[in-house]
Amino acid sequence: MRVHRNSLRGLCAASAATVIANFNALSEDQEPVSLVPVLYEPCSVELVTPSGKNLNPDNIVINNCALRVAILQLHAEIAELLGTEDFGLRVSGGFRYRDGKVHRSASNNSIVDESAEYSQHLVDEAADIVTKGVPFAVMEAARKKTPFAYGYFKLYEDGHYHVSFPRTATTKTLFERLNDRG
Q1: Predicted structure pTM score
Q2: Strand 96-99 vs strand 153-155: parallel, antiparallel, or unpaired?
Q3: What are the residue boundaries of the structural domains of the chain, listed by start?
Q4: CA 13, 67, 92, 106: dihedral to nearest 10 degrees?
Q5: What is the mean predicted confidence (pLDDT) over 134-154?
């Protein structure tokens, strides 16, 4: 399924257009080269649906415009599959940074236990999401219709989902830059 234009009202046009073009250009069996336009560029995309539902009430730090657009698209796909927007979807985790040997949340500086050494949260290509009223099968089906389709997807015991873009040459370059900084 293609990205819906109506789910992108009010978004940063250049970033949204890049994400949509890259995702829609894929054939069903083709993996993307990169779905990440330019990271850490100022982003005007708010995680608010066209109907006004705030998907990030805790102001979790997500700098990557493409990631914000993909989360909005995920919400739109779930709504389409359920036939309603009467469900909960909230961002619960976003960008992280290294502090010595630990990873910290950029949102509140708290240590994130059990964060993978090369977590895509470190390069702003992943988010954690909590849902309410969304069966796993619906979440899985919706994810497959978004730029998260080829990325890592997991439901953790505490009930949050991890969604990420696929690891690409861009991801590798970002991790190399991160490692060069120490």
Answers
A1: 0.76
A2: unpaired
A3: 5-180
A4: -100
A5: 95
Between 44 and 108, whose confidence is greater? Answer: 108
Does the pLDDT value for residue 76 go beyond 50?
yes
**Alpha-carbon radius of gyration of the chain:** 15
86-120 burial: b if 16+ Cβ within 10 Å, else e: ebebbbbbbbbebeeeebbbbbeeeebeebeeebb
Residues 42 and 139: their CA atoms lie apart, in Å, by 29
The answer to whether residue 36 scores a pLDDT higher than 70 is no
The total number of residues shown for the chain amounts to 182
- Give the DSSP letter of residue 38: S
Tokens of 116: 């993978």
pLDDT at 180: 64
Beta bridge partners of 103: 98
Partnered with residue 26 across adjacent β-strands are none
Residue linked to tokens 């829609």: 24
Closest CA to 159 of 181, 125, 133: 133
